[in-house]
Amino acid sequence: MRFHRIKIENLNSLSGTHEIDLEGVLSGAGLFLIHGPTGAGKSTILDAICLALYGKTPRLDAKTKHKVVGIDGVSPNDPALIMTRGTGSSRAEVEFSMSSPEGRPVRYRATWYVQRARKNPTGAFQKPERSLEVFEEQSGWRDLVAGSKKGDIDEHFGRVLQGLSFEDFQRTTLLAQFAFRQFLEADEKQRGELLARMTDGDRFKEIGKRAYLARKAAEDRLKTIDLELGGKAVLSEDEVAERSAVLARKQAEVKTLDEALAALGKKLEAWSAWQGAKERLESAEREQYSVHEEREARAVDLETLAVDRQLSPARQALDELERRVAQRDSAQAEVAKAEAVKAEAVGRRAQVAERQMGTAKTRAAASEAYESRRSELELADKAWSAWKQAQETLAAKEKEAKARELAWTKGVQAVEAILTRETGAHERLVEIDTLLGQIPQRELLLAEVSALEDRCEAQKKQRADIKRKTAALDKKREDRDRLAHEFAETSQRQASLEEAWVAAKAEVVAAEGALATLLGGAKLEEAVRLNAERKAELNTRIKRLEMLDVLRGEVVALSKALDAVEVEVARTTAEVEAFKVRVEQHEAEEKQVDERLDTKRREVELLGKVMHLVEQRSVLMPEHACPLCGSVEHPYVEAPETAPDSAHARAELETAQASLGELTAERARVKRALETARKSQSKVGDQASTVSARAASQAGELVSKRKQVADEELALGLGDGPTTPEREAARAALEGADRASSILAERSEGLRAAKSSEERARIARDQGAADLQRAENDLSNIKTIIETEESVIADAQKEIETAAVLLQGRLEALEIREPLLTTGVADARKRADRVKELTEEKKAAEAALTAARLALSEAEASRFSAAQERDRANAEHAAAEVSLVSAKAALHYEGRDPATVRAELESAEKAARLADEQAVAALAAEDTALASAEATLHAKVEAETKAKGALHEAEQAFESQRLVCGAASAEDVRKRSLDEAKRAELSALEERLAHRQTAVAAKVEDAGLALSKAEVSLQQLGEEGEASTRVAELETERGEKDATRSALQQDVGALRAELERNAAERAAQAELRTRRDAANADYEQWKLLAELIGTEEGKAFADLVQALNLSAVIERANARLAGFMERYELTQVVSESKMPRLDFLVVDRFQDNARRGTKSLSGGESFIVSLALALGLADLRSSRLRIDTLLIDEGFGSLDQKTLQDVLAALSALQEASGAQIGLISHVDAMKEVIPAQIEVVPLGDGRSKVEVRS
Fold first, then answer.
1. Which of 1219, 1220, 1192, 1221 lies closest to 1207, judged by CA?
2. Partners of 112 in the beta sheet?
3. For residue 900, what are the contacts with CB-CB under 8 A and spacing of at least 6?
4. Alpha carbon distance 703, 382 (integer Å)
5. Phi, psi (5° rounding) for residue 37?
């Protein structure tokens, strides 16, 4: 970072605009001086830089407690208070450059600006505004951000400044007054916090805390796994084998019961199917009879429905005829209505034509009247305009006269007010001079008050520091007493742990002796192995005996099953033959039904032709050829009584059609029965093949099982007798082996537990010894720390007392005699503030007096001018009144406005014209209406003609249909026809009966087939007898077997769950051991790391890092200090454990390298050492950010001439080595002779200064 230009406007004493160009006169000066007397405004230049870059200053930082009196609602630490008194705005602007990531310098301009409301010196402060611009070679300055929103502004500035905070800026670039002494005077805690802020120390504290937490978490995980391992209990291998054998046996028994239950289920299902089929057949037969009865009961209604259908064509023709009559009547009514409309239109047109003739005459009269008065209206307009102009002139003159009168009155009042203000300003000046004379040592007070406050504040901090250190010392004393008590308790606890370890070791020896006695000299592993082999042999024999029983049961079951299969083979063969006969019967029955169906179809066809001839007879006309035979003679038409009865023929046709439907349904039933029989034949044939195959398979399986039984009996040394005695003997031997295993396991577990207890006791003893040694070390360390801090507190108390005496002396020089230093310093600040306040008020009063006198002269002149203007305006007003009277006498129409008269004439003419136009339009509309009425009448007449023609056609069609159906008249057709509701009801009845008849026939057939199939199934299963009795017997048998199976299934489930749980426990135990090994390795790693850097709060690692950072700062500071003076260097304090601490001492080379505290340094020496430390800190912070401008504020006045020259020489060397530009701020005149490049702040009086740059 390098500064190029600083621009200041109205900041503190630097009133007006001031510009410092570091690239102009000072461009070649590596070292320059900012010089001026105390209070002139040197530090204001640094304030301007801070305001432009950060919007705040070190002197008005929110964290400081300056006693500044705020105004206009602004807080005491608000940067706006830096504005020069008596001005309305202030500005700070800095041009600087930063290195880009590519190493190229980029130039920026930062601005801070604040103003009072409307830039009024007495207005309220407005919100400060900041802006940031970047310079581009092509386009010049470009805005990056501007405004008053703090978040957005700070984000852009932080990015451009590359993360350089305000605090770091004060440590690396701007070293303000007394700021660089803070690091020298801080204690270890404050130094650690300062270095932590500069190096992100919280990150190292977090690392230490994480190491501690990670070690604790790893330890917890290890303990959790150990607890889980202790809670896992698993079965032995023998126990697993025993339970597996029992499980297999019980599963075989469950399987046998399942097969028996399945056979019982099939029988129950067959009986249930038989009962259901029988009930369905009985129900279907009852429903079939019900349909037949309903058809017989409704025969009359069905005959009526047939007659209604025959009359349907005539009824439709009659409906059409009635509709055409209605259309004809409607058309005649429309014609009459259209003729009336036409007559009304003719009458209206005559009336409208008469009205139009009258409106034409009125229009001509109105036009003639308007034209006759046109010239008279023009003369009236001129007279009216003249009168209105006179009125306006009079009003304007009257208004002007009043305004001039008011101006003259205000002028008189202004003169009186200014005289009053002048008197008040003069009296206030006298009062202020009196008050200033009452304050002694004013000049010295203003020069010294800030230094007094700083020294007083420093004393407060020192006293607070002593108080804090004393409290901390008391806490350490309490810690010392606590540690002493803990040391005593730890010693007692260690003795108890030693005794517990000895007792545990004795228990191990006793357990080893008991186990050796039990083994009788044999090894534990060999005894366990032999006993396990014996148990395995016994388990194997028991399993084989149980398996033999299972095989014997399977042989018996297979023999019974083979007998049943052979019976089933015989039964299925008989069923195949029976179904073959049934198929042949159904085929013959189908052939007979087909023949009957063909005969009935031919009969229906013949009757249909007869009915057709009867129907055609009604349409024969005399002397017209018959459409069937061609004869022109029609004897049955001429003598109808000789014709065959058509009703009888129709009844025969309907009877034949019903028989045809029944035969068709019967044929469908026979065909379905045939298909069912064929399917059943095929299915029974498949069953016979399957049963034969199963019989062959079971016969082979029976031979194989019998061979397995013989082989197993031979291997076990048994005959065909029972296996129970052998199994009981084997189980007894197995129980003996299990007891031996339990005793061995119990004794082995006792030995393992004793060894584990001994190991825990030994670890506890060793841990206790380590705790005892650690407690002793902690007690010794805290005693040493207490002694050191007691000495430091005593030295600090002496230094405070010495400083208090010096401060009291400076207060007495200001004629302030207060027993309390804080009260005296506060009184000095109040007096200084009062001096400043009165001085400002005096300046304001003098300015007000001068302004009042000038304003009085101007007010007198304004009052005289206003009087002249008032008289002139009054004269012009009187002349305007005379002109108004003359103009009014020349008006026409008795003073009425000519425009109003003209408007009345134009309105009358316009009204007549509109009335005439409306009458013409009305006449045209009536003509149109008359033409429309004539066209409508013509259309209605045509519609009437068409309706009459359609009516004639409908009458002919109805007569034709009436003759066909044999009705006497239209009334006869209506009388013999059914109404819509009745017709719909009977049609639905007919359709429902036909549907039910078909559905019931299908149900009877299906139920019969199902009953036959159920009887076949019962025969196949060997079931016979009364149904209800047999079903009850089967249900009872199934219930007993279900209960037995449920009990066995529960046993199987319990055994399977136990084995699965045991397998899961074994797998979990193995996985836990693997996890424990990994967790233990992880714990050992974290334990080692936590011992190095881990604490619960993470402070150990953070302190270590900051101590190493302090080492780097001291190394850089010593390099600077060597250039300032040869006598001193700094050395870091090291603890007893050889670890660096956050403290340092001064090594005095002139006193045989004696080490002493930094508080023993004189004021000048303290300044030099503080400067060296500040530069060292700046080097540490700026290692990532190049600093090309360094500003150091004050402190050089405490140096003697030689030391000052050494310091300046060292700073020159630093500037030449780094290439940075260094600015020194001081009021010491001697520095002006050494540093030629200067920025001088020159006081101008009245608290204002100017800036001059010279080289």
1. 1192
2. 92, 130
3. none
4. 150
5. -65, 165
Can you tell me the distance from the alpha carbon of 1123 to that of 1129, in angstroms, rounded to the nearest whole number?
11
| DSSP tag of 39 | T
Cα-Cα-Cα-Cα dihedral sign, residues 140, 145, 148, 150: negative
Q: Nearest-CA neighbor of 59 among 191, 179, 171?
A: 179
Helix, strand, coil tally for the chain in percent (to 5): 75, 10, 15
Tell me the sheet residues that pair with 1128: 1148
Q: At residue 36, does pLDDT exceed 80?
A: yes
For the record, the structure tokens of 410 come out as 């205000």
Q: How many helices (H) does the chain have, and how many strands (E)? A: 24, 15
Note the pLDDT tens digit of each residue in 899-943. 777 777 778 778 878 887 888 888 788 788 878 888 888 888 888
Strands 2-11 and 89-99 turn out to be: antiparallel
Structure tokens at 240: 């697993």
For residue 1238, the cross-strand partners are: 33, 1254
Place of tokens 């016969």: 699
User: Residue 83 gets which letter from DSSP?
Assistant: B
pLDDT at residue 351 above 50?
Answer: yes
Token digits of residue 501: 């370890």
Decide which of 1205 and 1184 is more confident.
Answer: 1205
CB 657 within 8 A of CB 611: no
Q: Are strands 1238-1245 and 31-35 parallel, antiparallel or unpaired?
A: parallel
The DSSP symbol for 905 reads H
Q: 18 phi and psi, to 5 degrees?
A: -135, 140
CA angle, 1168 as apex, 1163 and 1171 as ends, to 5°? Answer: 120
The β-bridge partners of 482 are: none
Please report, to the nearest 10 degrees, the dihedral formed by the alpha carbons of residues 412, 417, 419, 420 taken in order. Answer: 150
In angstroms, the CA 285 to CA 609 distance is: 37
- Does residue 1182 register a pLDDT over 60? no
Angle between helix axes 299-310 and 237-297 (nearest 10 degrees) is: 70
Give DSSP secondary structure letters for 113-146.
EEEBGGG-TTSPBPPPEEEEEEEETTTEEEEEEE
Q: What is the Cα–Cα distance from 42 to 32, expressed in whole angstroms?
A: 13
Instruction: Please tell me the distance from the alpha carbon of residue 1197 to that of residue 1110, in angstroms, as a whole number.
Output: 29
Report how far residue 745's alpha carbon sits from residue 873's, in angstroms, rounded to the nearest whole number. Answer: 136
1210-1232: pLDDT as tens digits: 778 777 766 778 888 887 777 88
Q: Which residues of 1186-1196 are buried (b: 16+ CB within 10 A; e: fewer)?
A: ebbbbbbbbbb
Contact of 182 with 171, CB cutoff 8 Å = no
Give 772's contacts (C-beta < 8 A, 6+ positions apart): 487, 490, 491, 494
